[in-house]
Amino acid sequence: MEICVLGSSSAGNCTLIKTENTTILIDLGFYPRYIEKSLSYTGIDPKEIDAVLITHEHTDHIRGAESFFRKYRVPFVMNKLTFQNAHVRLVPALFENFQEFTIKELHITPITVKHDSSNPVAYLIEGEKRIGVATDLGSTDLRLKSYFRNLDAYVFESNHDTEMLLHGTYPGFLKKRIVGDYGHLSNKQCGNTLKEINSGAEIFLAHISENNNTPEKAKGTVEDILGDDFTVHLTFPQKASEMIKV
Questions:
Q1: Which of 34, 181, 206, 237 could be disulfide-bonded to 135 (CB atoms 3.0-4.6 Å)?
Q2: Does 245 fall in a domain?
């Protein structure tokens, strides 16, 4: 299985997961032109995408969904509340959270997470390897940890450095929202959670804030917590990450 994060930030999110016979995207927070350009980097034609899975309805996760659907007619998959609140003109397949479904050879479990949207999910993707994708969550709970225990790879939120956030220019209400249980994970929360549930895996740090974090600070903090048994990769707001095989 291969992973490439095509982009991740408050401006847009999209993750590619590929096997020999199946190609999916998780979230589509960019317009088609950017997705096409990013996919070309991996040698994939957009027409090869078997499905797009949506985590929640915030704009940075669905911005390009409607136009991508019109252009390529790729199947979209999300839960009912997300679809009702997304206000996008497409016809998705709907699921119930925690109910496993399949896309060709991949087995997928949507897991409810804590974030300030209608019914957000993380995804457990199982094929020859097991991958967890959780880009927006204010805190982790026992259910998420149990599903995400001992996976081969993670795309996991490392949104902010707490000191940078608290001493930064954001207004008080926004700082409170970000550090709250339904906001976003800090670098330390990211590292501590992964350390608790795994002893060595490939890690992509997702949704790194451009205002309250730096790539160097995120990677350094998480690596200090995880140690040498993990391999930590960065993601970027407007650039695809490296393509990793797990």
A1: 206
A2: no
Q: What is the mean pLDDT of residues 150-163?
A: 98
Angle between helices 65-72 and 32-42 (to 10 degrees): 70
Q: Give the span between the Cα atoms of 45 and 144, in whole angstroms.
A: 33
Domain of residue 75: give its range: 2-240
The confidence score (pLDDT) of residue 227 equals 95
CA 90, 93, 97, 98 dihedral sign is negative
Spatial separation of the C-alpha atoms in residues 120 and 137, rounded to whole Å: 9
Q: Is 130 in contact with 107 (CB distance < 8 Å)?
A: no
CATH number at residue 107: 3.60.15.10
Query: Which three-class secondary structure state does DSSP give residue 212?
Result: coil
Q: Is this model's pTM higher than 0.90 or not?
A: yes
The count of domains in the chain is 1
